[in-house]
Every structure is written in C-alpha cells, then in structure tokens.
Amino acid sequence: RLLLDATKHKSLVRVIDLVFLRIAFQTDHGPRYLIQTREVYPDGCVCMETNQMPVAKKAPHESIMQTASRICKEMLQMDDSSIRFDFSNVGYFEHEEFSRSYPGLRTVYCQHTLTGVIAVADPALAGHAGGYPSGFTV
Question: How many Å apart are CA 51 and CA 46, to the nearest integer?
Fold first, then answer.
C-alpha cells in the first residue's frame, strides 16, 4: 500500500505489513520454537536455506488474525485450532529500507509478531500425522 509521508511534503511511502508467527512447544528443557530452515517448492526443489519464523505479507483486506490463520493452513499445513495465539500481546516493529525494486521510493516494513503455543502433547501430531511440512523444524 502507498501512503503519504506526513513529515515531508508530497512524499510517498510504500508500506509492507508482515506477520511473523513465534510458535512455541513446551518441552522438559524449556520452550522450543518452530522455524523455517529451508524453502521447499511443491515439485520438491529446495530453493533457499533460511532460519526464520514463519512469515507472510498481510493482505489489505486481512486482519492479523486472518493472516495468522492463512500461514497455519497454507505454509504450515496445520489447523490453526491446534495453536493457541495470544492476540492481546502482539509485538510491533517498523524499519525503513530503500528497495531495489522501487528505486526512489521509501519502503517501511511493519512487522507484527504473534506468539502462539502448540496445544497438543506431541508436536508431530499438530495438525497432521506426518509431522511438520518439509522445511520446518521445532
């Protein structure tokens, strides 16, 4: 989305809303977190090695809750009811970057971080019998 910058006259700012999921599973040794270790495409090709929390851009018509549900269903292939999210405590962070895709246009990334806890006893049973989707680990 494009917004007008209130600090500068006639200046546009590109705003990207990102929703990060910090999903924890309680173990005897403390909490463990679900992270994406690599990106795997449907054809099986491993494209990129990453170490990040599950994240997606928030669509303009979506709320943070709807984006979190979409991440669970599409990326994690999990039912979002197997994760208890704390919507009363959403982390928020903004940072500004200059994008190579849009030269001359400032880009502000608004990062919303939701914390959730897997609500089942065995993390391999969280949503499906096969464990987590390829590319994710606890």
Answer: 14
